[in-house]
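User: I've been going back and forth on whether these two constructs are worth ordering. Before I decide, could you fold them both?

Assistant: Sure. I'll take them in the order you sent them. The first construct and its structure tokens:
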Amino acid sequence: MAKPIVAVVGRPNVGKSTFFNKMAGARISIVEDTPGVTRDRVYADVSWQNYDFTLVDTGGIDPYSDDPLLTQMRAQANIAIETADVILFFVDGHEGLTGADYEVADMLRRTKKPVLLVVNKLDTPIKDVDRMDFFALGIGEPLPISSVNLLGIGDLLEELCKLLPDPEEASAGEDEEGPLKIAVVGRPNVGKSSLVNAILGQERVMVSDIAGTTRDAIDTPFRDNGRDYIIIDTAGIRRKAKVKEASLERYSVIRSLAAIRRCDCALLLIDAQDGVTEQDQRVAGYIADEGRACIILVNKWDALEKETGTLEKFTKKVRADLKFLDYAPLLFISAKTGQRVNRLLPSVNEVCDNARRRITTGLLNDALHDAISVTPPPSDHGRRLRIYYATQASVAPPTYVLFVNDKDLFHYSYERYLENHFRKSFVLDGTPIRILVRERGEKED
């Protein structure tokens, strides 16, 4: 299930980063009393009770400034707002209302998205009276907090969770069939938009040799051979050190990550002329972390000078560099010439079907017993791991729960062995597998 995105916005110096750091449990954002210190949006996954969401910190919005840096911060905050499911609008309860607060409030009202008005820096009970002035913003009831002293945070999170999807209902809907969502991701200028155009058979997405042309995550629905799809062209994910401060590229990463989260299959594009780079590995890590089905595409294969054994050597190098995507099929294509692009959608269908496959408890335990008979579970200091039975908990990715006598005896190497055995038994190419271990008596969930 894709986590909802919650954006923390407001004018500079109202305590957004302090709140973010408290929630994230670490000093992820820089906190100073100088407006404009948070120059890049920062994000972290947060859990509260049964709710999981991604919190996005943003630079302050100053509607009146012509300063180039603050202008860029305004732009990146807008991207966070557009991507967010819920917005936390922070104002300064100590300083009071400003003209900039009214401007930001007006901008947020136009988004038609759920907004919670958070009055920060109310560090003593007597200052709770000050929050009443903020009703004038027309956003709703002000929620008083102190990020520094952690006052009112629980009440704020309770109100926030009321606006998030119910976790049980969202999980129940995961198995529902619908259009297959395909996210095209990778570094800038590896041919993502060209590939989208090749798949669609028409110029639906702007193509340019200039890195960073695609600023947004663009959804395009289409139909092929009786099946519905949505293809998502994303902005290139570029390593921070390579992005200039005045460029919007650095602010498009969150959209690419959001696209990975909501897709059924991620197409990871690699430039054949560059090979696998550090940033390719980073993007691949996002895909693996989110548990998405994946196909690795080596693009611009037509432009690479080849000799005997080039394909085999390149394949071996890609597999070595992207070990954590060892389940992903590897295709060598040219988006420009259309080379092997016709193989792509059948491969997408296959890996998505594999990711959604349910295995009956009987078949799963038959495969488990076969694996155990070939390679018995490990032992430690005379105590042997016993696996009683297995059941499938969910799909996309397929998640199997194993009930054992002692979780501490379940070594990672044996988990990998069982994962590989399940792959061979049930043909699960293209999708990650999750194995959860429970001791007898524990709940499955």
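The second construct, handled the same way:
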Amino acid sequence: MYNTLCVMTIGDDFKKADMLIQALKEISDEYYLKYTGMGGMLEIPDIPERILTPREAYNSPTTTMCLENSIGHISAEFIYAYPPGIPVIYPGERITGEIVDYVEKMKEASLHVQGPEDPNVNYIKVVRNLEALTITA
């Protein structure tokens, strides 16, 4: 979550490599030890149970609910941190407590959590009319 990937190709020369190294040194000089509380890793939640295909969930009737109350319901939206953009949950997957906790931790770490219509990721669209498939939280 706190990594950078630098990609160089055969089209890059020593001058560009030196510019990258200089920029990284400047970033290190500016920020080294300033954010010591940000260390550690977040435990990635298990892959959730898929109930519907993403298309079925996306095209189903939905309702919006508070993320913390959505546990057991079927997501109708993606949630992911960008970068890297790998979804934590896809439409059609069952929302778990682990996922809700993980999303909250990503937000606390000031990561760019995206996907739902709600830009603050406090609310999520869930599939409506699947009461038989939802689990009480």
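Notes on the second construct follow. The chain is about 25% helix and 15% strand. The mean pLDDT is 87.
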